[in-house]
Design brief:
22% helix, 31% strand, alpha+beta, five-stranded mixed beta sheet, 3 helices, GTP Cyclohydrolase I, domain 2
């Protein structure tokens, strides 16, 4: 425990104690074969995936120690493996599979998974879908 933490111990009012804990993977850029239009099939497109995972207190590191942390490397690695060498017709399918993968993890209390194709329309930042537990 550092000197600063020792001096602050017990000074944080109960009303300011954390009520939620969130891990975020934002705009993970994947290139994958996605889409049902003829011009999309066989032509990989960029898909940006954002995953927000709320975890319980036990799954959120209280100490500066990697063994007590929720492994967010898992998000990037496992999502990459999930979509590798596969073809998808719909963003909804990709999002649902990512959602199920993360929802099954230890300590997850709430979840939001969103995906968007950023290169579809020149006048839009992207088109996409989202699933959330709330």
């Amino acid at each position: 425990m550092t000197d600063i933490v020792r001096r602050l111990d017990g000074l944080v009012p109960d009303r300011l104690r954390p009520k939620t804990r969130k891990i975020v993977l934002e705009d993970y850029a994947l290139n994958l074969d996605i889409g049902f239009h003829e011009f999309e099939i066989g032509n990989p497109q960029r898909l940006l995936v954002t995953v927000e995972v709320w975890v319980d207190e036990a799954a959120f590191a209280a100490a500066d120690d990697q063994t007590s942390a929720w492994d967010y490397d898992f998000l990037r690695t496992e999502i990459g493996a999930l979509v590798a060498d596969r073809r998808f017709n719909l963003q909804e399918t990709v999002v649902r599979e990512i959602y199920d993968l993360v929802a099954a993890r230890r300590g997850v209390t709430a979840l939001r998974v969103a995906a968007r194709k950023p290169d579809i329309y020149p006048d839009c930042a992207g088109v996409g879908v989202e699933l959330a537990s709330f």
